[in-house]
Specification:
It is a single chain. By secondary structure, this protein is mainly beta. The strands form three sheets. It has a four-stranded antiparallel beta sheet with strand order 5-4-7-8, with no helix packed on it. Strands 6-3-9 form a three-stranded mixed beta sheet, with no helix packed on it.
Length: 144
């Protein structure tokens, strides 16, 4: 199954199509890197989604970074933030990645990013780079 490396702990990642569960996480525990590797990069940015119900708490956004190049293949990093809050993923081995971000089963972002080794890499997750409809999470009450 896929693996989350969240706060240095491996977690099952059922939300991204993996097997999920603690049993799978324990089996893959050795693949989750702890601490900062030499030359590791930083990916950061803001998350923005306008069409949210103001009477409900902001939903939890799961962000998964999956290696998509020779130097990064097999590497996974993840974080969770409330939608419309900034995110940060430290200790990322520089190179190409696929970034996927979703709320529950709804994928809002699926894009590529190249993490640099000479400073922070910024990628803002906004509706302009999302493939999802503005009403993907849930339309506001009243059908608007």
């Amino acid at each position: 199954g896929e693996l989350d490396c969240l706060a240095g702990r491996p977690l099952g990642c059922a939300g991204f199509g993996g097997a999920g569960g603690r049993r799978a996480a324990r089996a893959d525990e050795g693949r989750c890197r702890r601490g900062r590797e030499p030359g590791a990069g930083l990916l950061q940015g803001r998350t923005e989604w306008a069409r949210l119900d103001p009477d409900r708490p902001r939903p939890l956004l799961q962000i998964l970074l999956e290696g998509d190049g020779p130097a990064t293949r097999g590497r996974r990093y993840a974080t969770r933030v409330r939608l419309n809050e900034p995110y940060r993923i430290d200790g990322v081995v520089p190179g190409r990645y696929r970034l996927m971000a979703q709320v529950g089963p709804v994928r809002l972002w699926d894009t590529s990013v190249a993490v640099r080794d000479d400073g922070p890499t910024s990628l803002d997750l906004t509706p302009s780079i999302s493939g999802a409809s503005p009403d993907a999470l849930h339309p506001l009450p009243g059908g608007s």
